Amino acid sequence: MLFEKFDYMARFQAELNAQDVIPFGAVTEKILSATEAIVNGRKVILAGTNNYLGLSFDPRCISAAQEAAGKWGVGTTGSRLANGTFLEHQELERELAAFHDVNHSIIFTTGFAATMGMCATLVGPGEVLLLDADSHASIYAGAQLSGAEIIRFKHNDPEDLARRLRRLGDRGKQTLIVVEGIYSMLGDTAPLQEIAAVKREYGGWLFIDEAHSMGVLGTHGRGAAEAAGVESEVDFIAGTFSKSLGATGGYCVSRHPELETIRYCIRSYIFTASSSPMMVACTRKALQILQSEPALRRQLQDNFNRLYKGLQSLGLPIGPSPSPVVAVALEDRTQAINCWNALMEAGVYVNLVVPPASPSTNFLLRNSVSAAHSSISVSACSFPAMAAPGVWPLKLV
Ligand SMILES: Cc1ncc(COP(=O)(O)O)c(C=O)c1O
């Protein structure tokens, strides 16, 4: 039967409904600031939004979007290859390439379309795509669409990557190696110096999805590749507008001029309407702010170090290193749902992540920290709420 395969989801939804818990698709009824809102009828601190620099609610970004709507209308109603390339799109492409210090750039309507489309297009049948086992769904989706042979290597394990490239021999030299800068669920960073060294030894093309590291890591905020000093060895960098830049959309930049030809072969670029000019305009403004206000990055770092140390001092099982994504692992689904709900009642919204969205079989409460959080709200996200008796049923080690 067509619908039987969805039974497990129907049972899960029924379980949540019976408890009157709405973690998935929680409704934001009113936004009060970048870090506070009314969600599911409750005033909460937003600690699960990926709004790393707090720019979703920056008045300069809001004005840029409003002005663009007046000038260009609200949508392009067409593909970039037809009527959907406005001057704004070209300007943003130029600005993103300049930001990453390369010459070529493509913008997409979403970050998902960027990563999926690039992975699906760069390799094809007869070729190999080597991906980190903890890769985001957009990378897996692109890999499947590509028709290439897909090989997974162990998460953040350059030796396993080297082993697999060795086995591929000459084919390894044309392999697309796909990793993320900061991993979206556990907040750990890819060992890019070691990965670049493996590439140097065995060949291959390196693609990094910097969705969670752009605007966060590196002297100029370019991401994990900049922080690791390996940008010149990276072939393609993908990113999104929906995290540090506070908007919606995605991009890919490259030093290879071939990107300009590849653009005409990417289905998720061709067969979809281009980004709304409002989104492009507020993204351009956010990119300017990201570059001119490095203090935002420092504030973000202070905030995530503080949250990480706070949760660590409680003895909670968290990711291996501080980053804007601080995830706490839970023992099972029931505990995860109860903790998520208890945090909501204590006035803190975090993301509840259950398999298959989480790596392995983890149940996670995923915090994401913003530069816009005050030190009071960072503390409120962690210590009192999570340490309160009865709220946090985990055994503290
Ligand atoms: C690693 C990674 N890549 C790509 C995406 C897709 O980005 P967007 O939500 O902007 O479409 C995400 C979104 O969470 C992500 O975590």
Write structural notes for this entry.
This protein is of the alpha/beta class. It folds into 2 domains: 4-50 and 294-387, Aspartate Aminotransferase, domain 1; 59-292, Aspartate Aminotransferase, domain 2 (3-Layer(aba) Sandwich), CATH 3.40.640. The protein is 40% helix and 16% strand. It has helices at 7-18, 59-72, 87-100, 111-122, 137-146, 158-168, 192-202, 224-228, 259-262, 267-270, 277-292, 294-313, 333-345, 375-387; strands spanning 28-31, 36-39, 42-46, 104-108, 128-132, 149-153, 176-180, 205-209, 236-240, 250-254, 325-330, 348-349, 351-353, 363-368. Mean pLDDT is 92; it is low at 387-397. The structure holds pyridoxal-5'-phosphate. Pyridoxal-5'-phosphate binds at residues 110-112, 115, 136, 138, 180, 184, 209, 211-212, 240, 242, 250. Residues 110-112, 115, 136, 138, 180, 184, 209, 211-212, 240, 242, 250 line the site of pyridoxal-5'-phosphate.
